[in-house]
Structures are given as structure tokens and as C-alpha cells.
Write a structure and sequence with these properties.
Number of strands: 9
Radius of gyration: 18 Å
Shape: globular
Structural class: alpha/beta
Order of helices and strands: EHEHEHEEEHEHEHHHE
Length: 253
């Protein structure tokens, strides 16, 4: 798919990985439509893109709410035209062990609220936005691309039952949609990041960060632009569909 003048919706686009994607895709000629739950941060992100000479607009949305998602995608179509691409990037973490016990006594369990919050945003949000994007592409009569952001944690990670389950589900959606939507000229791929340098890692204690980095064969954290490059590859490679790019510095060899 040619990125020039293509409207690409990016959920969680106001910061971190999403904003890095917007900058890279925008530099290649795309028109980013940023979707985020935080209006103030969204305004700042759009301003940073405009300062870089990138046309973009922001839309406040709760990706876990069906009505909110429909309204946001309708607003994108009305203001920028039908989208040609979607990056399902929005996500949250609510980590915790399934059961934490000491000397045979259970002290704490992963709450249903922790479970549901992550599933709602990280999995249901992908479903809702993917459905709206595909419907919009089909009705516009043009081809398109959906990129879902998974994680290497989809293989399972201690303390992340909710996150791992959601990210594994994202890959299942990716392969399913790739088969279902191919007839309409819509490709679907996924990116599974490893440990990336973000605000979250920047807030970690140095000893914990060093331990995390030492486990990566390349001995460094990835940069947001590394994930953005992976997204751009899927967008631009017209024979890529139904597969996952693992961008993790060799962590999952």
C-alpha cells in the first residue's frame, strides 16, 4: 500500500509507540488520525506532528466502548475521508500474580477488575476498532491494511495472565481477519514488541533495568522507532498478511 495521502488511524496515538508510528508514517506521506482517551495529550501530540510538517488530527475515544469507537471512526471519515490503514496500538497493563501465597496461606489474587480492564482495552478494543476499520474500507471500495500490536508476552509471562491472554488473542484475531478480509483486498498483520524504551522503562530502578536488558541478546532495549518501522513494513509490503513480526532484539530465538 502506498502511504502517500493515506489516512491511517492509530489507537493510543498520543504518546509512546503510537506517536512514534504517527511521526514515521507521516514522514512517509500518510495522514495520521490519532485516537486516544486523553484529550490534552492528544492535542499536544497533534501539535508536535504539525510542527514536523505532518498533517494530522486527533479524536478522543474509549476503544473499549462500542458507541465511542463508532463515533470516532465516523468522525475520521467525515473530516479526513475513509481510512486506508489502522494500527491497533492502544493498551494497558494491570499486572498481578494469579494467586500470591505465603506458607500455604493465600494473601492476594488477581482481581476480576484487573482481568476485565485489560481484556476490555487490549482485546475488545482491537475487535471494535478492527471491525469499524474493515467496514469503512469495504464501503469506500478500496484496499487497506490493519496492523495489530501484540507482544512477546503472548507466549505467557509471570504476573501477566490478563495481558498475555489478550495479546495471544490479538494474534488469533490477526490470522482470522487475514483470511476473512483478503477477498476485500484488506491485509492484516501484527507486530510483537519485546522490551522497548518507553516512559515505563524510564521509571524503573537502574538495577532492574540492567537485569531486563541483560536478557536481550542485543544487550539493549528497542526504540519506539523500531516498532514504527515494523508497522511501516507491513503497511507497505503488499504480500504480507496473516503473520507476526517479532521485534525483540533476539529475545525469543
Amino acid at each position: 500500500m502506498k502511504l502517500e495521502s493515506t489516512v491511517i488511524a492509530i489507537t493510543g496515538g498520543a504518546r509512546g509507540l503510537g506517536l512514534a508510528m504517527a511521526h514515521l508514517l507521516g514522514q512517509r506521506g500518510a495522514i495520521p488520525a490519532l485516537l486516544d482517551v486523553d484529550g490534552d495529550t492528544l492535542d499536544q501530540a497533534v501539535s508536535s506532528l504539525h510542527e514536523a510538517g505532518i498533517e494530522s488530527r486527533g479524536y478522543v475515544v474509549n476503544v473499549a466502548d462500542e458507541a465511542s469507537v463508532k463515533q470516532a471512526f465516523g468522525a475520521i471519515a467525515a473530516s479526513l475521508g475513509p481510512i486506508g490503514g489502522l494500527v491497533n496500538n492502544a493498551g494497558i497493563v494491570r499486572d498481578g500474580l494469579l494467586v500470591k501465597a505465603k506458607e500455604g496461606k493465600v494473601e492476594k489474587t488477581l482481581s476480576l477488575e484487573q482481568w476485565q480492564q485489560v481484556i476490555d482495552v487490549n482485546l475488545t478494543g482491537v475487535f471494535l476498532c478492527g471491525r469499524e476499520a474493515a467496514a469503512q474500507m469495504i464501503e469506500a471500495g478500496h484496499e487497506g491494511v490493519i496492523v495489530n500490536i501484540s507482544s512477546i508476552s503472548r507466549a505467557g509471562n509471570m504476573g501477566q495472565s490478563n495481558y498475555a491472554a489478550a495479546k495471544a488473542g490479538v494474534v488469533a484475531l490477526t490470522t482470522t481477519w487475514a483470511r476473512e478480509l483478503a477477498r476485500y483486498g484488506i491485509r492484516v498483520g501484527a507486530v510483537a514488541p519485546g522490551f522497548i524504551e518507553t516512559d515505563m522503562t524510564a521509571s524503573m530502578r537502574q538495577d532492574m533495568l540492567d537485569k531486563l536488558t541483560s536478557g536481550v541478546p542485543l544487550k539493549r532495549l528497542g526504540q519506539p522507532v523500531d516498532i514504527a518501522e515494523s508497522v511501516a513494513f507491513i503497511m507497505e509490503n503488499d504480500y504480507f498478511s496473516g503473520r507476526v513480526i517479532e521485534c525483540d532484539g533476539g529475545l525469543r530465538l
